[in-house]
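Q: Here's a chain of 136 amino acids. Please give me its 3D structure as tokens.
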Amino acid sequence: MLSRTGNQKGKIIEGGVGVVTVNGKEKKLPKSQSLGLYKFSHAQFEKDGVIVDTNVPDNWRSNIYFQIVLPSLGTFIIALHYKGREKAILEMDLKINDLLDKQKENVVSLDLEYVQLLVSKTLTLLNKVLSSFFFL
């Protein structure tokens, strides 16, 4: 399940590419603004088969979540967070084309140090994120 949150000011980002709807009025998206922010729990990624392997201790898993940010079209930042900690434990900047290349080269997993994500499921997830952004 996708969880869509607002930007830093708590406003939901919607509208066309480069457009933000704020209180029913459309405004241009500032260049530094991200296109979307999505959160997934460690358990959700496991359930959906996105996580192939994890080194996260069992007693930490309920406090771990992944944050996916779309700073621009075709670019994603996947960050691993621990609840209550402001800064991410790690972040990985991904381009959709790089993931597609990995899939073509039959690379099975994406190593995020503490977890390994299945490339095919990660692509499926990112496609869902993109489609939810454009079709909300």
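Q: Can you summarize the key feature?
A: The chain has three helices and nine strands.
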